[in-house]
Every structure is written in C-alpha cells, then in structure tokens.
Design a protein that fits this description.
- It is a single chain.
- The chain is mainly beta.
- About 5% of the residues lie in helices and about 40% in strands.
- It has one domain: Immunoglobulin-like.
- The strands form two sheets. It has a four-stranded mixed sheet.
- About 25% of the residues are buried.
- The mean pLDDT is about 90.
C-alpha cells in the first residue's frame, strides 16, 4: 500500500559549483519499511520554489541509485540563494511506494580559510 508523501525530512546546503557525490545525500526508508523490505527502484524529481521541474539542472544523469532501504543521487549546480525540493520516490520489493523530500539550499560562495 502506498505511503503518504512525507514532509521535508532534512535540509542540505551546497555551493553552485559543488558536486555532491551519490551516497552523501538521500533518504533512508528503514523506519517505514518492513525488516525484509528493500528498495527495488528509485527516482528523484527536483523542483524549484515555483514547482518547476529542474531535475536535469541539479541531478547528474544516471546517478540515481539505491541499496537496501536507502536511495541517493549525485547533485550539481543550482542558483545562488535558491531552494529546491528533491523528491525521492521508491518502490520496494514488496510493492510498497515510499516518498521522501530533501530540501536543497544553494549558498553564495565557499568559505575562505
């Protein structure tokens, strides 16, 4: 049975030139899944605050992946000062559908030390 869409589960911050490799960011569906349930497919849709699909601007093609009860993708780009929602939708080996949203905030510039 499909689970209701979850609220934003966390906020992540990046710089416009930063590439966040797959494995660093992504939801863990373990709290919602049965012990023997795993992710069997995953997609990510990134939208801006106007709900415009900007997935191709922020997700490196071919990097959405999953293992066990987690999903991830490689994130790139973004406009300084912008906020985006990365909506992960996963289907499990038991037929369940799970959704989690991560907010991405793009910062002005990297810190100089």
């Amino acid at each position: 049975m499909a689970k209701p869409q979850r609220e934003i589960i966390g906020t992540k911050y990046k710089f416009p030139t930063e590439v966040v490799v797959a494995g660093r960011w992504g939801p863990d569906f373990e709290p919602d899944m049965a012990d023997d349930e795993t992710v069997s497919s995953a997609t990510v849709l990134v939208t801006d605050m106007d709900d415009v699909d900007v997935t191709t601007d922020l997700v490196e093609p071919g990097t959405v992946s999953y293992t066990g009860q987690t999903a991830t993708a490689q994130f790139k780009g973004g406009v300084v000062g912008s906020r985006y929602n990365a909506k992960f939708t996963c289907v499990s080996n038991k037929g369940g559908t799970y959704v989690a949203v991560i907010e991405i905030v793009v910062l002005k510039s990297s810190l100089k030390v």
